[in-house]
Model the fold of this input.
Amino acid sequence: MRGENLLTRGSSRLIDLHTPTAKAVSAILSPLEHDTHLHITFNFETEVLDVHLPRLKLDFFLSNGATQLESKQFWGMTVDTNQLFSTLTGLVNRLILRGKDNFLRNVIISQGDVLFKPEGHHIRVHINTSSQNISYHLYHIDSQIGRLVDNGSLKSKLFKCYLHAVTAHCLTDELTGRTGTEEALSILASASVRSFLSLGQMEIDLLVLLARISPRRQFYLRHLQAMQEVEWETLAPLSQYVFFCISVQSIFEQARTLSLFQEKAAKLPDVDICGDRHLLERAAIRDSAYCVHGFGAENHTTDHDVVYMA
Done:
């Protein structure tokens, strides 16, 4: 070791990021944190490798003879060798933990701006973790009920809802038995989401993102009402269902009603965030042909059909 600069504290020594040990640890934790933000130390007395993620405030360790990183914050849980959980397909920034009994499974998902782009036949979803401090969400993977169980907060529910929406595919997820779109709409319609007294700014921002999944529709030359302009996201067309916007508008209307009882309520977006209401209703009727019952098929009607005069 002669000629090298070593950082030590007591019996602990900082591990160089270019060593095989650091590279192996970094590869495991790369979905959550970049290697330049990992602090890896080895204690020569206890023979324990410690890994600290300061931005996320998470810690892992590897005991002598062990083969899996263990979590300090979630005691008794190790980094799962199987990082698949049959939902949120395409999401990059997540790490699955498994209990030592092999039954309990949780997933840690970074909190941040959600970025998505088409990749092959699906969507690749990244979460921007460039800020100095990063928060995260912990969800329990409940294979019995078939869903991700949040911590009960509205922020956690809406973040999960948005991830289901942007990772949606035409095929159902194995975990939930629903498409991502159906699962997201179920969350928005649930009593747990509607049972709030006020909305914080983060909840409002997430709801706006959910509303923008629906294409924004406006009349081109409003006084004529003969053509429309439609703004699409870079998601699959079937993922951009009109009822995201309608559901969010309903939640905002509820929040406006409850704001009368708040001393200082957060400012809510304009009512027309989704575009023209008439065009949204037309789109809901057209989209019903591609939906199942409970998620839009019931909107099918011929009441508004007229004879087209060529």
Q: What stands out?
A: Helices lie at 20-29, 154-166, 180-189, 191-194, 201-211, 243-258, 277-287.
